[in-house]
TrEMBL record:
The keyword Lyase applies. Its EC number is 4.2.3.3. Pfam families: MGS (PF02142). It is an enzyme of class 4 (lyase). Belongs to the methylglyoxal synthase family. GO terms for molecular function: methylglyoxal synthase activity. Residues 6-152 form the MGS-like domain. The gene is mgsA. InterPro entries: Methylgl_synth, Methylglyoxal_synth_AS, MGS-like_dom, MGS-like_dom_sf. It comes from Pseudoalteromonas spongiae. It catalyses: dihydroxyacetone phosphate = methylglyoxal + phosphate. This is Methylglyoxal synthase.
Amino acid sequence: MEQITTAIPAKKSIALVAHDGKKSALTLWCQKHQDVLSQHNLYGTGTTGHLIEKTTGLAVEKLLSGPMGGDQQLGAKIAEHEVNLLIFFWDPLASQPHDPDVKALLRLAAVWNIPVACNEATADMLIASELMSQQIHRTIPDYHNYLADRLD
């Protein structure tokens, strides 16, 4: 498939997700980086979004809980270019009943070439980057031309 270049805006739309065993770590991380996060649009799955909003006062657009479809809602927002950065504190030591949804979410982040942090150290590096406040370019699949070629 051909690729095109598109922009991630200076004001990012950030998805915040955490497995149960990592919710407190993500909440603390959001408190630590509240000033930067307040400059961007935030999305969160179910309980995670509520916890972040309650503890930080940040506005979070809350979706369904991950196992109830929230991971898939975020995946759709990534595919529709509404979310352009994913912070997902996942718990690699715990079994997750919705693991296929999690893998699909991470796959979509890779397909659409958005920055992803799956742990605190990587999230710290992303949030501290000078690119957090700048428009950046990325290559993505040229899906519209792909479809046009198939329908001709």
